[in-house]
Amino acid sequence: MKRISLILLTLLAISGNLFAQAGDTSVAMADKLREDGKIWVVVAVVAVIFAGIAINMLRIDSKLKKIEKELNIK
Amino acid sequence: MRKIWWKILCIVIIFYVIIMGFIGPVPRLPIINESIRNTYFHVALWFAMTILLFTSMIYSIRYLSKGRIGDDDIASEIAKSGIFFGVLGCLTGSVWANFTWGDPWPNDPKLNGAAVGILIYMAYLLLRSSFEDEQRRARISSVYNIFAFAVFIPIIYILPRLTDSLHPGSGGNSTFGSYDIDNDIRKVLYPAVIGYILLGLWVAELRIRIKRIRRFHEEELIKTGRL
Question: What range does the record give for the signal peptide (chain A) (predicted)?
């Protein structure tokens, strides 16, 4: 099961590169932004915010675990 | 459920969605332009909410058939994270509608249906808070939860499709599948739904554990005669 899911994950990661963006530029999209518009900065900021939220949740989780251990709840 | 792996999985999936959601390729469509990326965040939110509310209903049924108060705890907390997602879905939908349909709340059957649905679930929370006795609260609100879900699905998914709606898949509009057929969207949307579901379950799990600790504490107090 573990091996199958690993293979599937690898295939998914590889397949991402196979789809090239269509060359049609008639519809306005944020092409400039993606060329050199530092969209990565925004992605990084959002990722940092979510990382903070995730760390916070994990800490609450571990604190609860500690209390449960003290009280001997399952 | 106290295992850590699915929480790590949730974090990894949401990071994937954040990065691929902004950077990944999307189909070029007029009017919605770049805002099609909201599919990953707004649409996935509603899907996750539906699954969460469905899970909550299953636990309500389980409570009614087995009578364990723990199942009612699980049902109510999962319903709460589902309602939270629903409120967020309304707000994010408002923002998106403002810039693509030109009105934060167009008179769209799907929007009004969603608002009514959220209100039905708000009534569920109100009902829960109006009982003192635990078993009574659990029994009556479990029955209500089942009915709420049974009403919720038609008014949010079926009725809007019978009339004209701005949302895809309604009236003369193309179905969700016609732009979802794009594999680029699919590769991020489905992980996004799973990520949101796991996040909702995580929040619910934390709240359930707090509830259990509180119940345990109360029982201790009763045992030692301090209450």
Answer: 1-20
